[in-house]
Amino acid sequence: MDYQSILIEPVLSEKSNIMRESGQYVFKVDSRADKIIVMEAVKTLFKVNPVSCRIINVASKPKRLRGRPGRTAEWKKAIVKLQKGETIRVFEGA
């Protein structure tokens, strides 16, 4: 797999912004990715040294659209912890 296709998009939420202050970054990742591949992708794309990675499968939730029942899509997220003092400049707005 290509490293750019592994990391789909960053997860920008209130909780992930709080986690970012402690050096943890949250990404939406490909459903076939594992911890080692995600850490290698972050290392090569952002030129940082990840320490650990946690993978979570996010379940779908029931939703209603125009009165019809449905579900959101299932997805996989990764929480990557960096070495102390390192940041990903894309998140910081630089």
Give structural notes.
The chain is an alpha+beta fold and 94 residues long. The protein has one domain: RRM (RNA recognition motif) domain (Alpha-Beta Plaits, 2-Layer Sandwich), CATH 3.30.70.330. 30% of the residues lie in helices and 37% in strands. The protein has 4 helices and 6 strands, in the order H-E-H-E-H-E-E-E-E-H.
Would you give the CATH topology? Alpha-Beta Plaits
Q: Pairing-aware structural class of the strands and helices?
A: alpha+beta
- Report the sheet with the most strands, covering strand number, pairing sense and barrel closure: 4 strands, antiparallel
Strand order of the largest sheet: 1-2-6-3
Parts with pLDDT < 50 across at least 5 consecutive residues: none
Please report the first level of CATH classification, the CATH class: Alpha Beta
Q: Care to count the β-strands?
A: 6
Measured as a percent range, the helix fraction is 25-40%
Whole-number count of domains? 1
Beginning-to-end CA distance, first to last residue: 28 Å
Shape from CA axes?
A: globular
**Number of helices, counting only DSSP H or I runs of 4 residues or more:** 4
What is the beta-strand fraction? 35-45%
Give the name of the CATH architecture.
Answer: 2-Layer Sandwich
> Which series of helices and strands comes N to C?
HEHEHEEEEH
CATH superfamily: RRM (RNA recognition motif) domain
Rg estimate, integer Å? 15 Å
Average pLDDT, rounded to a whole number, is: 93
